[in-house]
Amino acid sequence: MVDLNADYEVMAYSVGDTKAGTKMGKLQLRNINENSTLNCILWEETLNRLDPKLFRTGNIVKITGASFNEKFNNCLVSNMELIKEAALGLSEETREELYSNILKIIDEFKNDKLKEFVKDIWVKNKDLIKISPAAKMMHHNYLGGLIQHIYECLEFAQCIYPNMYKKINKDILFAACILHDIGKIFEYKINFETGFVDYNEDFRKDWISHSQYGFTLCMSNDQPQIAKMIASHHGRADWGAMIDLGEKDLENYYYIVHHIDDLSAKFGRIYVSDL
Question: Fewer CB within 10 Å: C terminus or N terminus of the chain?
Fold first, then answer.
């Protein structure tokens, strides 16, 4: 149900075409007090009246006109007002600092071949890495969200690694944390005015997902263990994993990046409002 007294955080927004040829907005809001999700619809007339910047990811808004559709379990919004405008994401200074900190970790790799491989990707794609979001809506879906997510994964890995009895190669683990989502720099795009995150359709013409991209990149550069970590990091096939961790007799290294990735996606700086 819609609560006209509640403050909502904008989680995701997109505009598409109806069968009648008009525009329709789809908006996902989070009730800040209840931490519940509200799915909303906005017809073209409403979209024409409201400023698109109102729907920036992370904005705090109040619904001032709406009706709830029990059949479709969504809210038809006719009016909204801005309570607090969100930032687009991380500042240029913070993104540069995170980039440099991760580059220092790469430079500490003992395996020179792996260091050269990862550093080449990191340096060649610097501009995209610094601006890319980590998701369309699930987590870290803001300017610089991907580099924030990668750094959080490395921080978790640095905490976990000394306490692992069943050791895997440290350079390989850290490289997998850095590269597990590298395909997202091509998979997603972000609007620098509104903060909207969407899929890059050019990427989707050639690739199934960022996981497939990362897996292929690592396999073609003789890094099969990292490739398999990337292939399994979503955990389950119905969550997008190429290798389902429910399979029997998988070696232990298949699991670690999945758990590290999940920690960041649930306990990291998930929303732009966490910055």
Answer: N
Q: Parallel, antiparallel, or unpaired for β 74-84 and 36-43?
A: parallel
Provide the residue type at 15 as one letter.
Answer: V
The type of residue at 263 is L
Euclidean distance between CA atoms 92 and 144, whole angstroms: 9
Nearest to 180 by CA among 263, 97, 95: 263
Distances (CA, A) of 157 to 95, 235, 256, 260: 20, 17, 9, 7
What pLDDT digit, counting tens, does each position of 32-77 carry?
988 899 999 999 999 999 998 899 888 999 999 998 887 778 899 9
pTM as predicted: 0.83
Residue listed under structure tokens 């409002």: 273
- What pairing do the DSSP bridges indicate for beta strands 23-31 and 60-69? unpaired
Q: Is the pLDDT of residue 1 over 80?
A: no
CB 230 within 8 A of CB 254: no
Q: In the predicted model, what is the mean pLDDT of residues 105-113?
A: 97
Token couple for 253: 């290294």
- Cα dihedral sign, 66-32-131-275: positive
Contacts of 258 (CB under 8 A, 6+ apart): 232, 233, 234, 235, 241, 245
The runs of H, that is alpha helices, within 136-252 are 145-160, 170-179, 184-187, 201-206, 210-219, 224-232
> What does residue 131 show for φ and ψ, rounded to 5 degrees?
-105, -15
